[in-house]
Amino acid sequence: MTGTGEPDAERLARVFLTRVVEPGDEVGGRWVRERGVLEVARRLREGGEPLPGVTARRWEGLLARAAGAGPERDLETAGAAGVRFVCPGDTEWPGPLDDLGDGRPLGLWVRGRPSLRMWALRSVAVVGARACTEYGAHMATALAAGLAERGWVVVSGGAYGVDGAAHRGALGAGGATVAVLACGVDRPYPRGHTELINRVAAQGLVVGELPPGDHPTPSRFILRNRVIAALTRGTVVVEAAHRSGSLVTARAAQRLGRHTMGVPGPATSGLSAGVHELLRGEAELVTDAAEVVELVGDIGDLAPVRRGPVLPRDLLEPGARRVLAALPARRAAGAREVARGAGTTPDDAIARLYELRALGYVERLGDGWKLTRQAMVSVRGGRSPC
């Protein structure tokens, strides 16, 4: 901004270009890098010889868009909707987006009070299928709530299914969440999520590359995903079929060197097939927020060690456990047979058997030894031995 509060020429040029150049257009990004945003905007306004890398037909299309662009009008419309324009060089600009190179956004339209740059420093993307299962919705909600409770920002795309569940999980936990849209942030999409996206804007941030009032297209959804991947420290895919758009986010995260994670599902579920394919590659398997934070967080942010229940036999000395395991399930056995099975001497086996008898695990039957009923239940978990 200028000292009078008016937008400076470069900011106006970037606003102008968001109306003319499609998100993620690396040709346009190269023009800006090599010639500067002011020169690119001037050439598009004045027409003439095409800039390099586009056909004459494509250049004509860009000029037609440029003729209808009004950056001052877009900024006025955005301001009335409580939306600000953030561009490279601003204090609020998130540095991780620069990793996109020539595909970096020309700027971002931001709705909500928090600083996008500060929130991006500690953020995780949670994405997945639109037509998710009940399991997928549950996992997305639980992951997002757990991340929010740990002070992490949950980023998603505002769509139906996993995206919506992730936003709701973070909001329900009183945490922070960001919705990255493939349309103007003043026009929530999908319309069925208008209330949800308004809640996100009130409690968090709604972000997009497209100017006010612009509509989504299939290609814009795909290109939007690179922003989600670049903005965050890692991406978790909850459910995804083989052709799911959320896999585009995961692969973009991999290319950018971000953590890529997947939540496993039933092997028979087509909605988990894409996630399982990721997990067979470079993605990490996660099942809860603690495991996500262990990957994306600071040194020492470790998930708790998972263990099954402690069984009585776990408290025995290793030698005694081997002797106990060597006893047949359904009959008595002599000390020599038990010693062979346990890999020890008969004398040691006898000593261990008397120890186990004192603890109630075995009983003596003549010259043999047999498991007690207590041992059958506690050692074998109450199941009938095979």
Task: Describe the protein in words.
The protein folds into three domains: 9-71; 95-296, Rossmann fold (3-Layer(aba) Sandwich); 312-379, Winged helix-like DNA-binding domain superfamily/Winged helix DNA-binding domain (Arc Repressor Mutant, subunit A, Orthogonal Bundle), CATH 1.10.10.10. Helix content is 45%, strand content 12%. It has 17 helices and twelve strands. The chain has a nine-stranded mixed sheet with strand order 1-2-6-5-4-3-7-8-9, with helices on both faces.
Question: How are the SSEs placed, and which strands pair?
Answer:
Layout: H1 9-20, H2 26-35, H3 37-46, H4 56-68, H5 71-80, E1 83-86, E2 108-111, H6 116-120, E3 123-127, H7 134-149, E4 153-156, H8 162-172, E5 177-181, H9 194-203, E6 205-208, H10 218-231, E7 234-237, H11 246-255, E8 259-262, H12 273-279, E9 284-285, H13 289-296, H14 318-326, E10 333-334, H15 335-342, H16 346-358, E11 362-365, E12 368-371, H17 373-379
Parallel strand pairs: 3-4, 3-7, 4-5, 5-6, 7-8, 8-9
Antiparallel strand pairs: 1-2, 2-6, 10-12, 11-12
Helix pairs in contact: 1-3, 1-4, 1-5, 2-3, 7-8, 7-13, 8-9, 10-11, 14-15, 14-16, 15-16
Q: Return the domain count.
A: 3
Strand order of the largest sheet: 1-2-6-5-4-3-7-8-9
Number of distinct helices:
17
User: Approximately what portion of the residues adopt beta-strand conformation?
Assistant: 5-15%
Q: Helix-strand pattern, N to C?
A: HHHHHEEHEHEHEHEHEHEHEHHEHHEEH
Tell me the helix content: 40-55%
Number of strands: 12
Distance between the termini: 78 Å
For the largest beta-sheet, the strand count, sense and barrel status come to: 9 strands, mixed
CATH architecture descriptor name of the largest domain:
3-Layer(aba) Sandwich
Large-scale geometry: elongated
- CATH class division of the largest domain: Alpha Beta
The average pLDDT score comes to 91
User: What structural category do the secondary elements indicate?
Assistant: alpha/beta
| CATH-defined fold name of the largest domain | Rossmann fold
Radius of gyration, whole Å:
30 Å
Query: What oligomeric state do these chains adopt?
Result: single chain
Low-confidence stretches: 381-386
